[in-house]
Model the fold of this input.
Amino acid sequence: MRNTSSCVEIVDAIQEHLPALYFVFSRGKTEGLAEDLGREWDFLLPDEKQQVEKAIQQAEQENANMFGGRRNNLRRLLLQGIAYHHAGLSPALKEIVENLYETRLIFVLFCTETFAVGINFPAASTVFESCRKWDGEAHRTILNREFYQMAGRAGRRGFDKVGRVYIRIDERFPEQTGFFDEEQVEPVRGRLTISPNTVLSLLCWKTDAEIQKFLSQNLAVYQNNLETARLDKDIASMDERMEELKGCFCDQMDTPPCPMFRRKLNKELNKLRRKRKRRKTDRYPGRIEQIKSMLAEKTKNCMHHACTDAQEEMGGLKEQRSHLMRRRSMLNRMTTDYPKEFDKMVELLRSMGYVDGRNLLARGAFALYVHVEELLVTELVFSGIIHEASPAEVAAILAGVDYYPGRDEVVLPGEYEMDEVGVLLNDLEEMGVPEHLRAWSPVPGPLAEAWYNGATFEQLMGRCNLHEGDVFSLLRRAIDLLRQMERAAGEDRELKEKVFHIRRTLDRDEIAVLL
Done:
């Protein structure tokens, strides 16, 4: 399908093979395309519309404002058998879209790749709006693994003999289809992060021998060693074959009597003659005569075709070997010296007063139970910031932990400046704490503050341009962090009661999760 085709034309072309999952790598575009299709198509019969209306009313009884504001269009689209689904939707909206899709009341669902992860939602067809995505650093063609994760949703057991996959090709990027090869699906690689919590947990619960085994025998090391061994074996096999091929060459190879060498000389001679005709001066004085002199020597009468074949095979092997050596070099660069990283983190924790040898000090004992930005959170507590701040301010501060605001995010300012956190971040930088271990942003703070002070979810959405799902996520993350801090507080009853109160206050209405 060409890039000039609209989603309306594409759905028209595949209407005999619905329902379809229409994958788009942009939240905003899922909504825009659903609107475009909604202007032209209505897939539901009257009795089906009644079923959807009933499902919507039941959902609204539990979440009265779920279709408020910008989501009013989704209510209308659902009644046409069309929907969109992305991480920015609230859990209630995701749930009704998923339920209606499972009951076959949604014929075209515009979704991001997150819909292909986890629960299986098959379709008769899958459509790719594009095969290029933004990965946080650049636009790139999706991987084989990513493509088959989504394309694999096509084909419903018991309904479809085959699953159909359609790709809308952008003529600017003809390579974007891959073309994808299921045999070339990229392997999942192990990855171990030596975080402060990892080190503290190992020091607390493991012996020296167990720590050494953990650092040297994890999945990442195993996979790296396995691939390195395979590459070494392939390289050795190629070296052995190239040694065998050298036996095909005589001691006169690359000398004037050698037919293969003479062929090279003739090519060079013709090239030099053409160049001399195009220039007034000879830039290669004497070379032509030198070549003529070598060609005047007697040619060796031999089975040079065998040498030619061997030389061609040798050239191919050298190219393959070069590729394998580059891959091996890349693996060496990717290999992490885990014992060294462990010792480095131990030294940082020692210098900050978290450990003394293998013993966890007060800070270390607290950080042991914190699993996100543990150094920052611990210092927020031990510096007195959390103890001295009001509950609403604590909620605002913790909402910014490990938060990376989007480029265009806008949140109206709150009451608290939170300047003391900025001072603490500077202190941590001077202590040598890496940037990724002190990630914090003031952007979401006013939302958590307002929510703590009793604002409605609708009022929260009026204070920012974030999606509902993003607001839900940042508040749930703050609640989870408060739960970790409550456990970490230990005998500090004042802190434990404070964070418990804040957590219970935040965990309400639309943000509450029923367990």
Notes: The two ends are 45 Å apart (CA to CA).
